[in-house]
Amino acid sequence: MGNRDRERPESNPSPFVISLLAAALVICTSQAAAAQTPPTAFVDAATVVPGLVLDMRYAGAHNFVGRPINGYEAARCWLTRSAADALAGVARDLAPRGLVLKVFDCYRPTRAVANFVRWARDLSDTAGKAEFYPQVDKRTLFRDGYIATHSGHSRGSTIDMTLAQAGGSELDMGTPFDFFSPRSSPGDPNVSATARADRATLAAAMRHRGFRPYVKEWWHFTLAREPFPNTYFDFPVR
After folding, report:
1. How many CB atoms lie within 10 A of CB 164?
2. CATH assignment of the domain containing 72
3. Which end of the chain is more exposed for a tag (fewer CB within 10 A), N or C?
4. Is residue 26 one of the residues assigned to a domain?
């Protein structure tokens, strides 16, 4: 072999390079740790909202997928402080009527949204069809707006919820939570008069405190002045 083909001896990095690499490692480690914890603008809503009842469906198996969803490691309701404070106002407004708030989902990590998208594209997985979408073709879930590639929940100011009596029984809303059907639209005329009245009570109370409803789901509300309108978070629910 000629000289140009010989291997060059390895040289040890200088102390300056070593210090730069160490600093970069610390920064990356800190960023990774920060990505796993809620930002300071988030709070556990149960510590803020009086009488809040938790039924966090995606932390367990009672949901349209039929198993716990990625990113939900505990049955907790994380929200931005702004959304939690507004929700506390709703709870105080309704308390004299003997009503409490029951939440099914709050902040949702983007990894959970990706889990839903994968499930929706697997047309062979229909374990929850009988309970959650008996009359809807799974192939149309994206088109019909029941599943999306991005969710406002990941911004931390959207809540899925219902009203319940102080004793625990839910009010009649005409359909269960996460029921994929036109009947779940807040203004659908095919539900009973009682359900229409209860939906109206929920919507009015939420609007009064600055939340806006979603046209396809009576249970879905987003704080109109949400603090992170363009940021989608992915820290796990712990």
Report:
1. 18
2. 3.30.1380.10
3. N
4. no
